[in-house]
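Entry type: protein chain
Record version: 2
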Amino acid sequence: MLHDRVLVRLSPEEGERRSSGGIVIPATAQVARRLAWGDVLGVGNSVRNVKVGDRVLFNPDDQLEVEIQGEGHLVMRERDIHATATERTEHGTGLYL
């Protein structure tokens, strides 16, 4: 990856979800403007806050898609990432918003 770009693999959908009230929402239901979690596979040399292996929260509708060895991935700028969840805890809890 070059400059401030990040390569992300979308996390697999979990299928059915439940609302806070207990209503089952099928996997085929359309949800408008929902953010998604993904795993970082590569970062450019200007990326500061995201490392390979981190989980990131972003809007998948605004990103560029690329296919690598038959798998779909997204390419985005670091500034398009809304949050990072990481196993590294040197700066706190591991979830940064």
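Comment: The chain has one domain: 5-11+35-96.
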